[in-house]
Every structure is written in C-alpha cells, then in structure tokens.
Specification:
The complex is a heterodimer of chains A (344) and B (490).
Chain A: H1 20-49, H2 59-65, H3 69-73, H4 81-89, H5 98-111, H6 118-132, H7 136-141, H8 144-165, H9 170-198, H10 211-220, H11 224-230, H12 237-246, H13 254-269, H14 275-294, H15 297-327
Helix pairs in contact in A: 1-5, 1-8, 1-9, 1-10, 5-6, 6-8, 9-10, 9-12, 9-13, 9-15, 13-14, 14-15
Chain B: H1 9-12, H2 37-47, H3 51-68, E1 71-76, E2 79-84, E3 87-94, H4 96-120, H5 125-128, H6 134-138, E4 160-167, E5 173-179, H7 186-199, H8 201-204, H9 215-225, E6 236-239, H10 248-258, E7 262-263, E8 268-271, E9 274-279, E10 282-285, E11 288-291, H11 314-319, E12 324-326, H12 337-340, H13 343-351, E13 358-359, E14 363-364, H14 368-376, E15 381-385, E16 395-396, H15 402-414, E17 419-423, E18 429-434, E19 437-446, E20 448-451, E21 455-457, E22 462-466, E23 480-487
Parallel strand pairs in B: 3-23, 5-13, 6-7, 6-11, 11-12
Antiparallel strand pairs in B: 1-2, 4-5, 4-20, 8-9, 9-10, 14-17, 15-16, 15-17, 18-19, 19-22, 20-21, 22-23
Classes of the chains: A mainly alpha (344), B alpha+beta (490).
Protein name (chain B): Circularly permuted type 2 ATP-grasp protein
Organism (chain B): Acetobacter farinalis
Domain Circularly permuted ATP-grasp type (chain B): 91-466
C-alpha cells in the first residue's frame, strides 16, 4: 500500500530558539482549526444522514459526541435543531462553539503573527472575522450545508496555505503536533459515541445493522468513499471501526495520526538539547501505537471499545500535558506569570 | 512670490479641475517656487486620473488593508473593533533638496538630544550654565533617577526618534514636536509604499523614488551596534505589551522586518542579573531589547509594582550593562513640550551650530512673560498642555468659542507650568480625496531617525493628513489619515 502521509518531516537545523509561547500558540492554532473542521463535518452529516427513532435529524447525538449535554442543558430546554445549531455555531458562551473556537484561533494567530506567513495570517484574519460576525439567523438563511461547506473549505485553505508557505522550523513541528493530536482525539470521540448509541449490546457485533447510520460515521470522517473502495461489499461495525482506527492509508485514521505524531516528535527530538524533553511525550505516543497495533478490532470490541476510546482520550490529554510541561513549563517551575493563551 | 502658473492646461483637464487651491502652501499645486521636473511629472500623471478611478483604487486599498490586518484596535463597550488608518492615494512628494535639508536637520536634532540626555544624567553642565532651568529637567515627571550616572553604549539614549515637522505659509519646515520615547507609525510608511506600488503602479512607474525598504535592516543593525560590549552575535528582541495593544500590528511588522522574536514581558526572565527568553529549548540570552512599552511598565521591581507587562529585574540587569534597552529610560525629558522651547538653545550649546530646522516660536507659561503674552493673545495662539500627546487637551485659539477661551484662561492661571503656547501655523496642505472630491487638507510629516554608531534617517516619513476640512489635528486618534511620502532621488 502506498503510504501517502508518511513522508518524513524535514526541518531546518539551527533554528532552536522558538519562544515557548509561540510553540504553545502554534499547537493550539492547529488544534482549534482541526476541531472547527470536525465540528462542521459533524453538523453537516447530522443534518443529512443521522436520524433518530422518529426519523428526524438526531441533534441530541452530537451533544453526546462532544460530551456537551451538561453545558447545553444548562442554558437550553430541549435539543431542537435551532437551539443545537445556535449552541454549536454562534453561541460564544459555549467554548466548543465554532464562534468561540474561531475566537481562540484568532487570538493564537495574532500571537504568532510575527512567525506565520502573511498569506496564512490574511486567510485566518478574514476567516475568523467572518465567523465572529455570524448571526444565528445566518445559519438557516444560507442553509446549514452551505455554511458547513464554507467552514470546511476555509479550514482546508488554511492547511493548504500553511503547507505551502510556513517556514519549516520548530513552529511547523508544534503546529503538526497539535494537528495530529487533535485528529487522534476527534476520531476516537466520533467512534466512541456513535458506536455506543448504534450498537449498545456486545452480542450484536457482526449482526445485520442499519447501513445508513454506519455510513454516516464514515461520512463525518470524510472516509466513506475510501472505505467503499476497500470494502465494497461488507459494511459491518467491525469493518467500519477497523478502518477508522487502523487503516494506514486513510489520513484521518487513528493509526495515521499516531504515526504522524511519532514522526513529528522524532524530528523535534533530533534537535540535540530537546531529546531529553521529548522522551516522556514519545513514550506516551509509543504506548498508544503499541496497544493499537497489538490488538485486532474484534479484540478491541470484545474487551470494550468504549473503555479503549476513553483510555486513548486520556492518553491524548497526557500527551498535551507532557508537551506543556516540557516546552512551556508553568509558572513556579521557571518563575514568572502564567500564559494567557486560550486553551480548551 | 507666487509667480509659477498654478494651473497648467493639462491639469485643468483632470483630477484637479475643481481643486480649490487654498491660500496655504500646497505640497503639490501651490509651491512658491516653480515645481521641479519630477514633481511636475507626478502632478501631470495624477491629473489624468478620474475621480471615479481614484475612488475605485482607494476602495481596493482599504479592502487590502483590512484583509492584511493592517489595523489598530479600538476598544469600546468591551468590544474590540479593528480599524484601518484611512489611506489617501495622492502621495505627498518631497524634492531631493527638501529632503537633504530635513535629513541634516533631523540628524542634528537627534545628536543634540542624545548629548543633552547624557549631560542631564551625568555632569548637568547645561543646568549649571543656566541654559535651561534645572527644575524643568530634574523635576520633570519623565526624569528617571535610575539613569543617573549610568553609562549607555555609544552614549546613545534615543535610538529611534520621530520628529514631527510642519510647513508654514512659505513652505518652511518647522519642528513641531520631538518623539524620543517610543515613536510609532513607521510601519505605515513602509506599508503605504507597498500599497502604492501595488495599486498605483502607473503613477510611480519610472519616478526615481528613495526606497523605504531598508528600515528593518538598519534598525536591527543599530541595535546590534549598541548591544553590551563583548557580545559577538547579539540576540535582539522586540518587547510588546501584547496582542491587545492598539499598535500590535506595528510591533509584529518591526519584529518581522528585523527577523527577531516579538516577546511579551512574560516571555522574558532575569536570572543572575541577565535577561533570558523562554524558548522550547530552555532559557536563551537576550542582549538588546527594542521596547514598545513605556518606562513605568518595564519592571515592576523598579517602577509600577502593578505592571503585569514588564519583566522583574530588568532595570537592574540594564544598570549592570548586561542588556541594552532602546530607547533608554528617561528619554521623555527630551521630548517634553516645555523642554522643546529650549531646543534651539540646547543645539547651540552642545554643537555650537544654528539649528538647521527651526522650531515653532514657543511661549513658556511657566515664565511670567510667557504667561502674560499667552493670556493677552490667547485668541491667536495654540495652547498645549505639556504632558499630553496625541493631540489631546489642546486649544486652538482662532477656532475656539468665547467660553472655551475663558475656560483656558482660567486653567492657565491655575497651573501655568502645565502649558506652552505657540502661534497658529498655517500648516501646508496636500490634495486629498474627500467625500466631495479632491480637496486641500492639512498635513504634517514625521521622519524616523535611527541611531547606533551613527544616525540614519529613513527617506520620507509618515505624512499624516487631517481629514476634516480645516482641521489642524492630524493624529489618528482624532480623525487623521495618512499618505505615502515620496522623496525624489534627484
């Protein structure tokens, strides 16, 4: 199989003085952009393909995927389409809304503006300002799928411009770290909640299922057509979960994201003095990769998919914590005031 | 004196047809001498534009500025609004001769300012000799005790200086104000040029203009030259208050042009009296800091203990000569509006030369005769509080109502030392695109001078334009815009 995303990360030697604050902001910039894209996918797919028992779009499932039920019901009575959409698109009080995340993107981008290319900044500037000016009424007026498409395209433009213009120094590596970490996180959340709701009982593994529902999972991850090419006949939960977790050629699969994380960390560790700092982070990632490689999908499901996804998410936040500890140590360790960067 | 034909036939045909040439010196259309060939060429080309075309390009320029985020942030009702500095597409043109005069005048001024600052923080000869009242200097709120007796590299205090110039009725350049603390606006000079070359290539083609591209390089070079002795490859940083500062764009711009990190106070740490920045590889030494932070915020241990923006211990490291801060602390004495009145004498005192650039005649209200004159002639004068900048709190006598004049008379008597007065100068104008067409608007000029081992002046400078008809206040906070400043190479 051709491994489309394994090209090694090359970076310029000698640029070993990236400000800690810049590293942190690059990582969060990438994470938030990736998160916005994923949310846009989820919203679009939920509207088109996800149906509750009454045949209407299952807006409550999206609250589950993001573990946002508490946050949502603190301010809303029922999960109507209008309210869930406002909650996820324009409600700035919800830290996981597109608007709140665009705000975080903007703050981080402003902080690293001296570092990123002018073209990156221009696109982010226009994009975030557009999102920040969105009104709840804009969601319906232009149809949800139009809105989600523009969001996805803006995110993809961002990746393209970044890939094509950002200088390959440490800033790039921390950007990649954030991007692949976020992808790992998003794919496990998606699998976890959808699998959970669609197939609650273990004994049903491998039995006949609602293909539309499973296809919607693939669609949310932009994996539907790739999966079809690989598995033209059999859409089983095992196949779908296996594809999203373990396929080495699919750019958003867990194993691809973990491999990219690993390779990015090796490059960072290649900078002499950073080897020691990288070690605990690399260890976390290695553990993630080994557990994924050592088990078949069937094993994973039998042992408990939900528990495994939870464990992965815990490991992922450990990677983030270890990275912070290594590269932007909190006050007290080095003295001084805490960073004000917006995090999750 | 006004012999040159104002309207050659070709101009009458175009953009300037309806331009009401005012009585003031007009940078483009009413120069007292016959315009030099380069200027004539630009004028003729401009005349070919239609109003619609100029508006079209202006809209394109403003859209670009917005997209590029060349904005300053205004905070109102806890909402952050990004504004662009209005940009006028009709350039302000200076001839080679005019520039040569300004260049020499600014260099002289900066040299005198640096000698003055060195003197008041060491021997105080100028005070002993009675050239300037000792109280005005030593009791000045900007006088910095931490600088007393401190040797700064190269004797340079003001590494970056902005000199505000105006032109009077006869086209004579006069210094209105010195900016020796943290002068801003230079990013607009360079971005305005880029904008002009992108959007008005047909106007600039073949015109021999002095380049403004070197600024970042020269700034970096100057800072390296004044780094602590013995450092071979100095690490320069730009210290900014952060992303919420209204001039953050300029900080980003300058850090990029110099190729140095833009740091905030929390990125720096002082250990063993040395300054370091926090990087992913640990602490790395810093040798020179271009700070865009006022003195009082630099170091909570030395000044305002409430400041979250500064770096604890920075002033101590500075006093030990381990780091260079540009501009030095306590330079605000030199650009004080009351000290300004003494600048011609200060130049003569240190350099034994006449000032190349004259100042505006200034009455110091702290002196009885200055106060008496000001009170007697208030309706003819501009009254300025000495502590304010940005065009705040001043009175323009001829434009004021009886009540306002009375109010200021009272303020003057209550606290005369807080004010100076100057005659109203009929600022020069430049044709400017306005809602009703191309009209005359008042302009000033702020050239920027860099000093390391020697002084270099960026050709041109920031031309600010008062967009309101008749207004003399060009500050961006007061409805001002800007123009590209073209210095003809020959």
């Amino acid at each position: 199989m051709t491994e489309i995303s394994t090209n090694p990360v090359h970076i310029q030697p000698g640029l070993n003085n990236l400000l800690s604050r810049y590293a942190e902001c690059m990582m969060w910039l990438a994470r938030y952009m990736e998160r916005i894209e994923n949310l846009a996918r989820l919203l679009e797919v939920t509207e088109s393909f996800v149906r509750g028992a009454d045949g209407r779009p299952g807006w409550d499932t999206i609250l589950q995927i993001n573990s946002d039920e508490d946050c949502f019901f603190a301010r809303h009575q029922t999960a109507t389409e209008q309210e869930v959409l406002a909650f996820y698109v324009t409600e700035q009080e919800n830290p996981n809304s597109i608007k709140a995340m665009a705000h975080a993107v903007r703050e981080n981008a402003r902080a690293v503006r001296p570092l990123i290319s002018t073209e990156m900044w221009m696109q982010l500037n226009v994009f975030t300002r557009w999102v920040l000016d969105l009104h709840p009424s804009d969601i319906r007026a232009n149809s949800l799928s139009g809105l989600c498409n523009r969001l996805k395209q803006e995110c993809q433009s961002h990746y393209g411009i970044t890939e094509g213009t950002l200088y390959r120094d440490q800033a790039w590596l921390f950007y990649l770290l954030g991007k692949h970490l976020e992808r790992s996180d998003q794919i496990t959340r998606l699998i976890d909640i959808r699998y959970h709701t669609l197939l609650p009982a273990h004994e049903e593994v491998g039995s006949g299922i609602d293909i539309t529902q499973w296809a919607s999972i693939l669609r949310s991850a932009a994996a539907y057509h790739a999966f079809r090419r690989l598995q033209p006949v059999t859409t089983t939960p095992v196949n779908v979960v296996g594809f999203l977790l373990k396929n080495e050629g699919f750019p958003r699969s867990l194993s691809t994201s973990l491999r990219m994380l690993d390779s990015t960390l090796s490059t960072i560790a290649g900078h002499g003095s950073l080897r020691r700092l990288c070690a605990p982070i690399q260890e976390c990632v290695a553990e993630l990769r080994v557990t994924l490689a050592d088990q078949t999908v069937e094993d994973i499901i039998i042992r408990g998919l939900h528990e495994y996804m939870q464990w992965i998410q815990t490991q992922i936040s450990r990677v983030q914590q270890e990275t912070a500890l290594a590269f932007w140590p909190a006050p007290g360790i080095l003295g001084g005031t805490p960073s004000v960067q917006v995090q999750q | 004196m006004n012999d040159a034909p104002l309207h050659a036939p070709v101009q009458a045909a175009g953009l300037f047809t309806a331009y009401d040439v005012p009585d003031f010196f007009c940078e483009l259309l009413n120069r007292k001498d016959p315009p030099p060939p380069g200027l004539l060429q630009i004028k003729e080309r401009l005349a070919q534009f239609t109003l619609a075309e100029l508006r079209h390009r202006t809209a394109a320029a403003e859209a670009q500025l917005y997209r590029l985020g060349i904005t300053f942030t205004v905070y109102s009702d806890s909402k952050a609004i990004d504004r662009i500095l209005p940009f006028d597409m009709i350039p302000r043109v200076l001839t080679a001769t005019e520039w040569d005069h300004i260049d020499r005048g600014v260099q002289q001024r900066v040299q005198a300012i640096n000698l003055f600052l060195h003197d008041i923080y060491h021997d105080r000869a100028i005070l002993r000799d009675g050239i300037i009242p000792a109280d005005l200097v030593l009791k000045n709120p900007n006088y910095c005790e931490a600088m007393v007796g401190l040797k700064v590299p190269g004797g340079v205090y003001v590494h970056i200086n902005g000199t505000d110039l105006i032109r009077d009725q006869d086209g004579r350049f006069l210094i209105l104000e010195d900016n020796a603390r943290t002068p801003s606006g230079v990013s607009y000079v360079i971005e305005n040029r880029h904008m002009m070359l992108r959007l008005m290539p047909d106007l600039a083609a073949g015109v021999p203009l002095r380049s403004v591209e070197e600024y970042g390089l020269k700034l970096h070079q100057s800072l390296c030259e004044v780094s602590p002795e013995g450092v071979l490859d100095p690490q320069v940083v730009l210290l900014s208050p952060g992303i919420y500062n209204s001039a953050y764009f300029e900080h980003v711009f300058l850090a990029r042009e110099m190729g140095v990190p833009l740091v905030e106070g929390k990125d720096l740490v002082v250990e063993n009296h040395r300054v370091f920045m926090r990087t992913v590889a640990g602490l790395r030494p810093v040798h020179a800091i271009y700070r865009r932070l006022n003195d009082e915020f630099l170091d909570p241990l030395a000044f305002n203990p409430e400041s979250m923006l500064g770096v604890p211990g920075l002033v101590d490291a500075y006093r030990r000569g381990n780091v260079t801060i540009a501009n030095a602390l306590g330079t605000g004495v030199a650009d004080d509006k009351a000290v300004y009145a003494y600048m011609p004498r200060i130049i003569r005192y240190y350099l034994n030369e006449d000032p190349i650039l004259e100042s505006v005649q200034t009455h110091i209200c702290a002196e009885p005769e200055g106060l008496a004159y000001t009170l007697a002639n208030i309706e003819k004068l501009v009254i300025k509080p000495v502590g304010e900048s940005g065009g705040y709190g001043l009175l323009i006598g001829p434009h004021a109502t009886q009540d306002e004049l009375e109010e200021f008379r009272r303020r003057l008597k209550d606290n005369p030392a807080n004010y100076i007065s100057q005659p109203v100068v009929n600022l020069s104008v430049s044709p400017t695109l306005c809602p009703a067409g191309v009209e005359a608007r008042h302009v000033d000029l702020r050239p920027f001078a860099l000093t390391g081992r020697s002084t270099w002046v960026l050709p041109g400078g920031l031309s600010r334009v008062a967009l309101r008809k008749g207004s003399l206040v060009v500050n961006s906070s007061q409805g001002g815009g800007s123009k590209d400043t073209w210095v003809l190479a020959s």
